[in-house]
Amino acid sequence: MVFKHRKDLLGLAELNRAEIESIINTAVPMKDILTRDIKKVPALRGKVVCTVFYENSTRTRTSFELAGKYLSADTVNLAVSTSSVQKGESLKDTIKTIEVMGTDVMVMRHSMSGAPHYVARNTKMRVINAGDGFHAHPTQGLLDMYSIREKKGTLDGLKVVILGDIQHSRVARSNIAGLSKFGCEVRVVGPSTLMPADIENMGAKRFYNIEEALDGADVINVLRLQLERQKKGLFPSVPEYAENFGLNRKRLSLAKKDVLVLHPGPMNRGVEVASDVADSAFSVINEQVTNGVAIRMALLYLMIGGASE
Ligand code: CP
What is the DSSP letter of 1? Predict the structure, then answer.
């Protein structure tokens, strides 16, 4: 059982293949609960989940909150922008305060890489990393893997292209860490100024030409151009980025006929992905969001439900 010997979920690099499979397998019956008229089971009655997001979020925070509610946990959100963090309270003191109120699991997003690791070392609560800086977004990696396996029937040996702003992407790093354990050929392509120098050491295959990267792809995971994290001068202009690296119909036709298009959201339509591609039959972008709830239900259940005892 994955979380018998692990207190926290901080990244996918530290999980082995069997552990990832166990989480994804547990998410399958969780997704069934989402299709019911009454989306509620008592698995986590009496447990407390607290989401603490120092960075904005729509999908991740809401889906963790719903995942907890569907499993009957009490869920609470610390609204950082209106909290005592604004009066200068330290991260350590904030975390201790949440812990001593009886929280079982804390779901945390922070702009600093390593912040959830620091918190995990300083609390008895279980900690889930909901995204730390450029470093990791393990639950996004898991929901992407779930979405691919659901459609393709397997992850083994697939050609998965990660397209765009790799440098600033914790989603890319978590996908590379997870997919490479399943023998996937993970291809990365994007502007050289948005490509980490050590990307091949992480297990990805770097391409310099977008058409070559897309040739025969089973999956294309398009990344958001993270304009808020960019220093000026990393690419000439947004229209030129779209021209050179945007996923459009012409480029999509280079991939396999049954290619899947993923995007973690939020999308810059017309920049990294053309609207007609995002809304096409190849796109699983909305299903990724639903699968995100199932994956987060699975994680909460495995970490603080009966299965963890
Ligand atoms: N994919 C993702 O992390 O989205 P949010 O920033 O909306 O949570």
Answer: -
